[in-house]
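Field notebook, page 379. I keep forgetting to write these up properly, so this time I am using the form the group agreed on. The chain and the ligand, zinc ion, are recorded exactly as supplied. Prediction of the bound pose follows.
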Amino acid sequence: MLFADIIGQDALKGKLIQTVRENRISHARLFLGPESAGSLPLAIAYAQYINCTNRGDTDSCGKCPSCNKYNKLIHPDLHFVFPVVKGKSGKAAISDMFITEWRETLLSNPYLTYNQWLDTMDAENKQGGIFVDESKEILRKLSFKTYEADYKVMIIWMAEKMNLQTANKLLKILEEPPEKTLFLLIAESSDQLLPTILSRTQLTRVPKIDKTHLTDYLEKNLSCSRQQAINAAELSNGNLALAKAYLQTAEEENLYFNLFATMMRTCWKVWGHKQAMLDLIEWSNEMAAFTREKQKAYLMYSLRMVRENIVLNQQQPQLAFLTDEESKFSANFNPFIHPGNVAQLSENINKAHYHIEANGNAKIIFLDMACKIVVLLKH
Ligand SMILES: [Zn+2]
C-alpha cells in the first residue's frame, strides 16, 4: 500500500512521514477515525514506508524486496489481527484462520468496513470479536526475531472489538514491546476502547475524507457523472464504502427513492388496511436482502429525505435539494413531516442505522423502524 493510493489525507501523510524522517517512530500508535475514511490503508502504508529500503521523500519505492511483499500483504514481519467470528460450537477463533480471505478482501478493498468483513466471513448475525486466544498468538509471534525487516509490525484492526481479557493480556507488551516492534492499532470509536489501551498508545486522529478529494476519486474511479459524485460525497459524509454503495445503487433506477416512497406510503396506509401491514413486512424482508452497506446508504438517504421535507414543510423550498422525481413526491409528502414529529423520525432512523452497524437482525430492525414511522406519521 502506497501513500499515493490513499484518498486525500495529505496533512496526515506528511505528519507520518515526518516521524520517520525525524526518527520519532512510536512503538504503539493508534489510528482513530471514522469508518471507511482510510485508517487501515494509512497504517499499512506507514508500515510499508518505515520498512522500505529505498524510500523517497513522500512515499515508499513500491519496488524493493520489502515493498514487493508489502504490496501483497505477505511480508513475514507484517502481522494482522482483526475481529473474527467463533465457529459453530463456539470454538475459539483467531485471525490466522481467516488470513487468506483477509488478504484477498483487503487487497481488493482497502477501505473495508466492519460489516463488509463480517459478510466475507459469512457471519450472518453473529458478532465478531478479538478473543483471548488471539493475545496468546500475538505474544508468541512477537517473541520471534524479525525475519528480514527493520521493524516487525502488528496491525490490530477494529481494536475496540478486543474483549477485556484480550486487552489485559496485551497491556505489558504494549508498554514495553520487544525491540524494533511496532503496534499499529486502528479503531473507530475511542469510547469503546479501554482507557488502559488509549493511555499506552500515541494517538493519530484520521479525519473523514474531505469532499473534494472524495468527489474527484469517485468521478475518476466509478462510472458516474460529476454531479452524481458530488451527491454521493455529500451523502456519505466522507465514508468511501457508503459513497460506493450509494453510487452503485443509484444506477438501479432510483432504488432508494422507490424504497423510501414505498415505505412512507405503506406506513401511512397501515391505519385501516390489513394488507398494508403485510406489505410492510414484505418491504422489510426486501430491505434485509441488501448488503449492510446498502442498508446503511438507504438509511442515510431516508434521513436526507426527512430533512428536505421538513425544509419544504417550513416553506423554504430554496434550501431543498431534490431531483424531479423526489420533488414531485415531496410536494404531496411534506405536510406529513413537521416540527411535531421530525426529531423523533430522525432519531428512529438513526437508531436503525446504529443497530444495522452493530450487525443486528435486519428484518427486525427495518420492521421495527417502519412500525414507529406508522405512529409518527399520524402525530
Ligand atoms: Zn520500497
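OBSERVATIONS:
- The chain has a mean pLDDT of 92.
- The chain has 17 helices and five strands.
FOLLOW-UP: compare against the apo run.
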